[in-house]
TrEMBL record:
InterPro entries, alphabetized: Transptr_NO3_Nar2
Organism: Oryza meyeriana var. granulata
GO annotation terms (biological process): nitrate assimilation; response to nitrate
Secretion signal span: 1-25
One GO cellular component term noted in the UniProt record for this chain: plasma membrane
Name the UniProt record assigns to this protein: High-affinity nitrate transporter
Amino acid sequence: MARFRVVFCVLLLALGARHVTPAAAAAAGVRLSALAKTLVVEASPRAGQVLHAGEDTITLTWSLNATAAAAGADAGYKAVKVTLCYAPASQEGRGWRKSHDDLSKDKACQFKIVQQPYAGAGKFEYRVARDVPTASYYVRAYALDASGAQVAYGETAPEDCFAVAGVTGVTASIEVAAGVLSAFSVAALAVFFVLENRKKNK
């Protein structure tokens, strides 16, 4: 019985290890407070501007902050990953959006915008994804090493956040279809009523 329990525990541990994603493994143990803030990140929306998910675009740029990074400090930067993060006001009372210093536990930066090889500076046009919910956001970029672990970062000021109006699920095409079906049902009811009256008269 004891041997069975040991084997069972080993199997559970093995299954758990298989379900750890590479991103989670890379982030394990990495703390934001320990990372150098060597990237300058800018986003086109003005503070307080409202964007519409699935429609509006954001122009993003990032570059190495030469005044904050020593010469050659970016030698180990292999890629840049840019994410959309919930602003502090949209985290309040929502544990599933909370930021955390341990990046493997961070839930604020859930929406990946782009990841591409590091080239000192970069630019990307991002159309706000349809699954981005209504909330306030800012942008953060991570510099990744060859293993995919975060080694530096930069972000737009969280206090200068912009808003996203999420998709409600009721699109214009759905409204049109609902109107057509309603009109058709009224017409069908009228035809049915006329036919019933004719039958009675006969």
